[in-house]
Design goal:
Layout: H1 36-40, H2 49-68, H3 72-94, H4 115-132, H5 135-151
Helix pairs in contact: 2-3, 2-4, 3-4
Pfam family, one: DUF4385
Biased composition (Basic residues): 141-153
InterPro entries: DUF4385
Length: 153
């Protein structure tokens, strides 16, 4: 592969190969790590607070199921979808078009707060923080990172 190599292989089944999963920063891999992307993406909605609440409920249920299976990759991917729900709804709360910058000048577009999207962002943010601070998540993350360090990644 020429140039920068992708962080995640979209053709790999990370449930079968969790050792190949790299946590990355923020939401990296959220739309490439399978089969988790396909399991979580259908639940990810933030257009209205009601949709955000339903999405968070479904994503947290998936998180709990992954946790019960000791599936760190699934847990982390659920966390990433919650984080992405927060960041995207915040963007749309500030910019109705979803664009932060003008296409031609790259100047930042003016903001106008959309209270409905801002509420969606608050809903996702609370759930994201809940998962991030879950001792089971933190412990599973440390174990995953330690295994990768031993493998030399």
């Amino acid at each position: 592969m020429t140039g920068k190599q992708a962080m995640h292989d979209a053709t790999l089944d990370y449930r079968l190969h969790p050792e190949r999963y790299r946590i990355g920063r923020g939401e990296q891999g959220v739309l490439t790590v399978e089969p988790y992307k396909s399991e979580l993406l259908p639940h990810w909605r933030f257009k209205t607070p009601a949709m955000a609440r339903d999405a968070v409920e479904a994503l947290l249920a998936k998180y709990e199921a992954y946790k019960a299976e000791a599936d760190f990759v699934g847990m982390d991917m659920a966390r990433k979808f919650l984080q992405m729900g927060y960041t995207r709804s915040r963007r749309y709360a500030r910019h109705a078009s979803g664009r932060k910058y003008a296409q031609t000048t790259r100047d930042e577009l003016p903001t106008q707060e959309d209270p409905e999207k801002a509420e969606s962002a608050r809903i996702f943010h609370a759930a994201w923080q809940q998962v991030r601070s879950d001792p089971a998540y933190q412990d599973a993350k440390r174990r995953h990172q330690a295994r990768q360090a031993r493998r030399g990644r």
